[in-house]
Amino acid sequence: MSTPMFDVSGVTLRFGGVTSLNNVTLHHNRGEILAVIGPNGAGKTSLFNSLTGVYAPQEGTITFDRDGSTPLSVIGKKPHRIASAGVARTFQASRMFPAMTAFENVKIGAESHRGFGVIGAMVKGPQTRRHERETDATTWELLKFVGLEQQANVLSGSLNYGARRRLEIARGLATNPKVLLLDEPAAGTNPAEKIELTELIRRVRDEMGVSILLIEHDMKLVMSLAERLYVLNFGSVIAEGTPDEIRSNQAVIDAYLGSTDTAKGGE
Amino acid sequence: MMKFLRSAQAKKLGSWLALVVTVTVMTGPPGNPTQPTLGFTSSFSERVSFFGLFPAPRGVLFLALALLVAGAVLAYSRVAKAPVQRARAAVVPKYQALAGKRTFRLSWYAVVLLGAVLLPHLVTDPFWQSAMVSQIAIYILLAIGLNVVVGFAGLLDLGFVAFYAIGAYVTAWVTGALPVAAPFHHHLNPFWAIPIAIVVVMIAGVLLGVPTLRLRGDYLAIVTLGFGEIVTIFMNNLYGITGGSTGSNQIPHFSIHLGSLKYLWGLNPVPYYYLTLGFVVLFLIIFSSLEHSRIGRSWVAIREDEVAAESLGVNPLKYKVMAFAIGAASAGFAGVMTAGQSFFINPATFTLSFSINILVLVIFGGMGSIIGVVIGSVVIQTLSMYLIHTPPAGFQNSDLYIYLGALLIAMMIFRPAGLWPSKRRRREFTDAGVEGTASIAGGQ
Question: For B200-221, how does the pLDDT look when each residue is reduced to its tens digit (9 = 90+)?
Answer without folding.
Answer: 999 999 999 999 888 877 899 9
